[in-house]
Write a structure and sequence with these properties.
Structural class: alpha/beta
Strand content: 5-15%
Number of domains: 1
CATH architecture: 3-Layer(aba) Sandwich
Radius of gyration: 20 Å
Shape: globular
CATH class: Alpha Beta
CATH topology: Alkaline Phosphatase, subunit A
Largest sheet: 9 strands, mixed
Low-confidence stretches: 153-160
Order of helices and strands: EEHEEHEHHEEHHHEHEEEEHH
Mean pLDDT: 89
Number of strands: 12
């Protein structure tokens, strides 16, 4: 019997480094934005208005097109209690849903275990990029992690078994300080070879792919193209993950040019990805989450912005109820948190929406608690 209902697929794009929320979702209707950003700001009249108060960075035209189609949910003021300005710790919190202690399992690793408890498909979860994000790591859950499919591989490009073992050993040493040596060794012994087997299968995806969409040559665009290739190959993958180059959104200096270029490339990549899936009638079961570990300080430093809190996230897809969700955090000085935006919405609410509303899973054990949904699906 031919299946007529497609399984829902979740794609995650992580903006590594702490994306500047104020220059992404620009509060152009608030004079305090211009007061706090004398040097590092989007000029008046240039933001792509969404609701009269906030607008997208002018380099985000392709994402604005999708928003105008009603396919983008903009989640304002995203964060968590007692924000941490360390890249590693904040991202760890987002990945494990453990704001008060060091987590050992990723939220998506748990989700993959729920979706495929018997490990019938080594490609239920796939990551593009170096290493394996903590979000995907859970004991006994194989996740294939590869570099660009065109050049094929991080670990998978290593031919000799002893070289693969050495690479896995390096991986174990990298993660042992945070989750314990034994846990890492157990994880690798149970899942390492399954993940490598999955990566070998992935290398066949490009030869099955044909498209009129021309992606950019930046890293995010190429990874989004890889994700489209894997989705279109029909491997049964349910979770696809990728990360912007390490700390690329960490704009302490030279932000205006760098941030504009980053969002020009990223916005184009997202729109090309959606256009590619639509061309193949394959967008109806895909939802994309775009997030970052924290926002930046409200006041610029003269050339860039330093680590802060209160970020913005986007959810994109043909099944998304587009619009603005949550409130923009206040820019009034007495309502800031040590010079940062307060968070209005816990990131685990976004996860809860995606897990329950989209993936059909019980979110509470996966995000470690009960959180109010936005209902953007």
């Amino acid at each position: 019997m031919t299946a007529t209902k497609k399984d829902p697929v979740l794609v995650v794009l992580q903006l590594s480094g702490g994306n500047d929320a104020l220059n992404t979702l620009v509060p152009h209707g608030d004079p305090l934005y211009y007061d706090n950003r004398p040097a590092v700001r989007v000029p008046e009249g240039q933001a792509l208005d969404l609701d009269g108060y906030a607008g997208l960075n002018p380099n985000m035209g392709p994402l604005k097109r999708l928003y105008d189609e009603g396919k983008v949910a903009v989640i304002q003021g995203v964060g968590y209690p007692n924000p941490n300005r360390s890249h590693f710790r904040s991202m760890d919190i987002w990945h494990t849903c453990e704001p008060d202690k060091q987590g050992t399992e990723g939220w998506l690793g748990r989700a993959i275990r729920e979706m495929d408890p018997n490990k019938e498909n080594v490609l239920t979860g796939v990551n593009f990029g170096r290493g394996l994000p903590r979000a995907l790591a859970a004991p006994g859950v194989p996740v294939a992690s590869v570099g660009n499919l065109a050049t094929y591989g991080v670990l998978t490009g290593i031919e000799a078994d002893e070289q693969r073992v050495e690479a896995l050993d390096i991986f174990s040493k990298m993660y042992s300080p945070t989750i314990g040596r034994n846990a890492v060794v157990d994880y690798l012994s149970q899942t390492g070879m399954d993940a490598l087997k999955g990566a070998d299968i992935l290398s066949t995806a490009p030869e099955m792919y044909s498209s009129t969409v021309e992606y950019g040559d930046d890293v995010v665009a190429q990874y989004m193209k890889n994700i489209a290739q894997v989705h279109l190959a029909g491997f049964g993958t349910r979770v696809l993950y990728t990360t912007a180059p390490y700390n690329s959104f960490d704009t302490h200096a030279g932000e205006l040019a760098a941030h504009a270029s980053l969002w020009g490339n990223t916005s184009n990549a997202i729109a090309d990805f959606m256009d590619d899936l639509r061309e193949h009638n394959a967008s109806d079961n895909v939802t994309l989450l775009v997030f970052t570990e924290f926002g930046r300080r409200v006041h610029d430093n003269g050339s860039g912005t330093d680590h802060g809190s209160g970020g913005v996230a986007f959810v994109v897809g043909d099944n998304v109820k587009g619009g603005m969700y949550g409130e923009y955090p206040s820019l009034e000085e007495d309502k800031l948190l040590e010079g940062d935006l307060h968070f209005n919405n816990d990131f685990r609410s976004i996860y809860t929406d995606l897990l329950e509303g989209w993936m059909g899973l019980d979110a509470q054990p996966l995000v470690n608690g009960q959180f109010e949904k936005f209902n953007f699906i």
